[in-house]
Amino acid sequence: MNAQLERLKMEIAPLREQLIHHTLYANINSIKRLQVFMENHVFAVWDFMSLLKTLQVNLTCTDIPWVPVGSASTRYLINEIVTGEESDVDENGVRASHFEMYLAAMCQAEASTKCIEDFVTRIKRGAPVSQALTVTQLNSGVVEFVTNTFNTINCGKVHVQAAVFTFGREDLIPGMFLTFVNSLKNSTGTSLSKFKYYLERHIEVDGDHHSHLGFEMTSELCGSDPEKWNEATLAVKDALQSRLQLWDSINTLIAGVD
After folding, report:
1. Alpha-carbon span 104 to 152, nearest angstrom
2. Angle formed by the axes of helices 193-204 and 98-108, to 10°?
3. pLDDT tens digits for 5-39?
């Protein structure tokens, strides 16, 4: 057992507990409130892939001609996660990224995809993320969350990126959404089968396989360097605090929805 990894887990435990037991979940008690949640949360689903692809660029060779980069173990870890996130299977066995699954779930739940589609269109046309965030009319919590993610992406420290990915995103999702899935069991009206599948798929994959891969990746990149472990811990705490602020902002929005 890696003592430094366990120490990191212990230090971030209070923030994780706040997220896992956030009042937001209990407050999403209607289709309209769920729609508001999805319309904001989808941006976290989107920027997750940018953080993941940053790790792939930094930890594997994505240039031509190819040359071996880093350790084969780390290359395997990150490529395994990329495969699962970028080309998983939906409830019908059709290949799709988790982002595309989420958009399909939004459409089924009759949530608006206009903001996220406008945002992605601006990105495809070459707009910087900061500009696309400014132009698209978004909740300030979403803007701050995505900005925090891209600050991590642009920090240039792969051990920090790996730690935030593992403990601020991958490892967090199962516990955070398990409560959410349970609260949806009594939902009626609009079909939520695609959203439930998306959540259950995350719990199945991220709650076991991917989280363990992330632990190994973070341990390998931080090694025995106490400064790297400290930087990683501080960055994860910042990422979790950013998620709390996002959840608080969405909680405020849905409070005005009947």
Report:
1. 28
2. 150
3. 999 999 999 999 998 889 998 888 888 999 999 99
